[in-house]
């Protein structure tokens, strides 16, 4: 089994499938976390958002965006957005798994989709959306160097930030927020390695135990930024904790939204 096959087999353990289809209807989005093998290491591809965008301009993120009515599912959204943003054909992505959906600060339910691409892929960034494309070895997201973290009022867990010096372009990129925690999570899972820094969740076990706390921290971290937290959001957090073993097994019929819930 080569490195790609080994890594894919590990990540497939965390596929959530359709088990959360009962969750409340919220605005949805997906991101693609593209992985590839180069020089015996697994890398991930990231993008720098255009300065012309209305939101999060100039920030590092993964290819992705909001669900389109034509999209069949979360994977379809991630693949479509990746093609639009960086010219990555959907048939050149070997989808490995979808991870637990997380809430971002805007109230979108974001599903991370992990997939392998060829190391030879040459991005064709859409200048209206993407100003740069670069790659980072997963190992980088487990090291203390170039990493910092801090807590903020009203935010569960730590906010992480990395300063990545890209030797290929000579540029320096700040990777922070939800993008950073997703990068840490995928790196911890794929490498089965404890980070050198405090993550804000239990990383003693880089397998499912760390995923439990990490994913719940991400969900709560996102919902903490939403000003009006409705019962719909509470259901998502509750489902995450029950699925991840932090509470008793969930029962979908007991988690139906109540009448009069605040819409977001």
Automatic annotation (TrEMBL):
Gene3D superfamilies: Nucleoside Triphosphate Pyrophosphohydrolase (3.90.79.10). Keywords: Hydrolase, Magnesium, Manganese, Metal-binding, Peroxisome, RNA-binding. Its cofactor is Mg(2+); Mn(2+). GO terms for molecular function: coenzyme A diphosphatase activity; metal ion binding; RNA binding. It is found in: Peroxisome. GO terms for cellular component: peroxisomal matrix. Residues 26-159 form the Nudix hydrolase domain. It catalyses: tetradecanoyl-CoA + H2O = tetradecanoyl-4'-phosphopantetheine + adenosine 3',5'-bisphosphate + 2 H(+); decanoyl-CoA + H2O = decanoyl-4'-phosphopantetheine + adenosine 3',5'-bisphosphate + 2 H(+); 3alpha,7alpha,12alpha-trihydroxy-5beta-cholestan-26-oyl-CoA + H2O = 3alpha,7alpha,12alpha-trihydroxy-5beta-cholestan-26-oyl-4'-phosphopantetheine + adenosine 3',5'-bisphosphate + 2 H(+); choloyl-CoA + H2O = S-choloyl-4'-phosphopantetheine + adenosine 3',5'-bisphosphate + 2 H(+). CDD domains: NUDIX_CoAse_Nudt7 (cd03426). InterPro entries: CoAse (IPR045121), NUDIX_hydrolase-like_dom_sf (IPR015797), NUDIX_hydrolase_dom (IPR000086). Its main location: other. It is an enzyme of class 3 (hydrolase). Its EC number is 3.6.1.77. One of its GO terms (biological process) is coenzyme A catabolic process. Pfam families: NUDIX (PF00293). It comes from the Eukaryota. Belongs to the Nudix hydrolase family. PCD1 subfamily. Fatty acyl-coenzyme A (CoA) diphosphatase that hydrolyzes fatty acyl-CoA to yield acyl-4'-phosphopantetheine and adenosine 3',5'-bisphosphate. Cleaves CoA, CoA esters and oxidized CoA with similar efficiencies. Preferentially hydrolyzes medium-chain acyl-CoAs and bile acid-CoAs. Has no activity toward NDP-sugars, CDP-alcohols, (deoxy)nucleoside 5'-triphosphates, nucleoside 5'-di or monophosphates, diadenosine polyphosphates, NAD, NADH, NADP, NADPH or thymidine-5'-monophospho-p-nitrophenyl ester. Monomer. This is Peroxisomal coenzyme A diphosphatase NUDT7. It comes from Coregonus suidteri. The lineage of its organism: Eukaryota, Metazoa, Chordata, Craniata, Vertebrata.
